[in-house]
Amino acid sequence: MTKWIDQTTWRFLLVGCINTLFGTSIMFLAYNVLGLSYWLSSASNYFFGSILSYFLNKYFTFQKKDKSIGDILPFALNITICYFITYGLAKPLVANLFSSLSVSMKDNGAMLVGMCLFVGLNYLGQRYFGFQKKE
Fold first, then answer.
1. N or C end of the chain: smaller count of CB under 10 Å?
2. CB neighbours (10 Å) of residue 20?
3. Sign, Cα dihedral of 56, 62, 68, 72
């Protein structure tokens, strides 16, 4: 269990809290205030949040000191894959479970569920693919 929960895990969770506040604000403002669609609102969260997340995770969480841009592609690929899997699952799941709710309520609920699913999948992807340690 120690291998899975270490200092990196705690730093990732802290960065995740900061990034969640930032991205969630963007997502719900885009959907509920600007009237953007489910997909544009949630994608805005991950576009802008990923920029913040990249720098915080690279230098703080995984403590990579190199100035290489070589880890941008794996990072972006991981974010993209995680986004489509989690939000693609969340929307029909919430729509089926809460069919009597309004579209707006279902979309807001799906965005919350998508965020939760994204956290776990993204952590595994970043740790073992995006910012893996070179032995």
1. C
2. 17
3. negative
Chain centroid, CA 60 distance in Å: 17
The count of C-alpha atoms lying within 13 angstroms of the C-alpha of 111, restricted to the half-sphere facing its C-beta, is: 26
CA pair distance 18, 96, nearest whole angstrom: 31
Q: Which two tokens stand for residue 28?
A: 């719900």
pLDDT tens profile 28-38 = 999 999 999 99
> How many whole angstroms separate alpha carbon 64 and alpha carbon 129?
14
Residues in the chain: 135
Contact in structure between 90 and 114 (CB atoms under 8 Å): yes
Q: Is the pTM of this model over 0.85?
A: no
Kind and range of the H or E element at 127? none
Q: What pLDDT is attached to residue 86?
A: 95
Averaged pLDDT, 64-75: 78
**Cα–Cα distance between 29 and 122 in angstroms, integer?**
23
